[in-house]
Amino acid sequence: MDTTTALLIFHRLVAIYPHTETHFLGFTNPFECLILTILSAQTTDATVNRIAPALFERYPTAEDLAAADPAELEEIIRPTGFYHAKGKNIIGAAAALIARYNGGVPDRMDDLITLPGVGRKTANIVLHHAFGINAGVAVDTHVRRLSQRIGLSETADPEKIERDLMALYPQELWGEITYVLIRHGREVCSARKPACPSCLISNICRYPGKTCEATAKKT
DNA sequence: CTCCCGATAT
DNA sequence: ATATCAGGAG
Asked: Is residue A25 part of a domain?
């Protein structure tokens, strides 16, 4: 994939998905952004947003969450799945914020990925949406799937895909490219039933005619 | 590589 | 009934 084609894809998608809010989770500060993004692993944002009000009403700050009773916390976050691991992670992350970052959320990749439950994807989301920093490209399941289908990257390894996207796009677009790829992945280029006929970048995509049509014809 | 795990779409 | 969902840890 060449840079010119990659930029064309980006501009087509931005035209389809104009946005003022570039996130899908209902957070109001960096702490809430961090916690909700950890909880969003392998879970739809709708499910996360549904439990968010109860979660932050019970635990408004890192101090409150660090002192949470695990069983009580698990009951609140259970609908998001992986609730035992996630509960342990967000209590641990809150405790780390208190112990090492004066109760605040660090704004550097190296610090964020030391927090339990936080990898590069979650760290990139927090950096971009809570601090406006484009340290890298967040590669989630949608970004990975679309990158492979469109041909933005040839690998299935999220870290390699991130490097490919960082090489293809200027740094100021690293946050937005994640947003438009996820949006397109949800609304058109879905995992099971991609709507290739109504896709406005299908003429660029190498995917139609392969798995795309085969998947679509199954129904 | 497996495991974590409930909600939702197909 | 099964694949998938704003992944990460062991």
From this structure: no
d(CA A137, CA A30): 18
Nucleotide lying nearest to A47, CA to C1' measure: B7
pLDDT in tens, A117-145: 999 999 999 999 999 999 999 999 999 99
Sequence-distant (≥ 6) Cβ neighbours of residue A7 within 8 angstroms: A168, A169
Which residues of A line the annotated binding site for [4Fe-4S] cluster? 189, 196, 199, 205
| Total count of domains within chain A | 2
- Its domain, for residue A192, covers 3-19+137-217
* Residue of A213, A218, A205 whose CA lies nearest to A150: A205
Q: What is the pTM (predicted TM-score) of this model?
A: 0.94
